[in-house]
Amino acid sequence: MHQEHTFNKIAVVLDTGALLAKYYRLLPRTRVDIFTTNSAVTEVRDLENKRALLEAIELEVIRVLDPEDRYVSTVLIVAKNIGSLSKLSQTDVQIAALALMLRGKYNNVVVITDDYELQNLLLSLKISFKPLRTRGITCLTIYSVYCPLCLYTPSNPGETACPFCGIPLVRRRLS
Fold first, then answer.
1. What's 2-138's CATH class?
2. The pTM of the whole model exceeds 0.90
3. How far apart (Å, rounded) are the C-alpha atoms in residues 88 and 78?
4. CB-CB neighbours of 114 under 10 Å
5. Band (7; pLDDT cuts 50, 70, 90)
6. Distance CA 61, CA 55 (A)
7. So what's the pLDDT on residue 50?
8. Which of 54, 75, 145, 155 counts the most CB atoms within 10 A of its CB?
9. Could you please report the per-residue DSSP string of 18-76?
């Protein structure tokens, strides 16, 4: 019975920027279930926004949920394949993995984010997104990221330098 109910609702996943914008206050809760991750909550540091966010969590306006490891693994593989891994934060990965996990329970999942790199990842995962203050991206971009000296390719989010040579990684647009 409960499964059927969630299928009629939209799961909205908020990244840190959406939490800071208090986007959760604008959503119709009769049609929408709102989610975020612990890492996104941790990134909200200023007192006013933190208070408002904690109140929204306490009132169950927002559900804080971390994705299962298998979804994080899938997101990391896809991010590496499109050359986005070095530009994504751990929180970006968590947000995308949560959206992927929720896709099994909801007909429609939308991530609210202005982060172009996260949007690119979501596009490749076939997950909808809605930007807040930007136009947002319209087509997937695939990059090649590597060390120009030894050809090492990164496998960790946020990697910017080669662990062997110490020189900055190069990122080239493939498509």
1. alpha beta
2. no
3. 12
4. 18
5. low
6. 9
7. 96
8. 75
9. HHHTTGGGGS-TTTEEEEE-HHHHHH--SHHHHHHHHHHHHTTSEEE-PPPHHHHHHHH
Return the structure tokens found at 158. Answer: 């946020």
Q: Which helix (H) or strand (E) holds 146?
A: strand 143-146
AA identity, residue 96: A
Rounded to whole angstroms, the Cα distance separating 68 from 78 reads 16
pLDDT tens by residue, 103-155: 989 989 999 999 999 999 999 999 999 999 888 888 888 888 899 999 898 87
Scanning the structure block, which residue is given the tokens 């979501």?
Answer: 122
Contacts of 107 (CB under 8 A, 6+ apart): 7, 8, 10
| φ and ψ of 51, to 5 deg | -60, -50
Distance of CA 124 to the CA centre of its chain: 12
Cβ-Cβ contacts under 8 Å for 114 (sequence gap 6 or more) = 17, 131, 132, 133, 134, 136
Alpha-carbon span 128 to 14, nearest angstrom: 12
Reduced to 3 states (helix: H, G, I; strand: E, B; else coil), residue 120 is helix
Which residue type, as a one-letter code, is found at position 33? D
Read off the tokens for 71: 């979804």
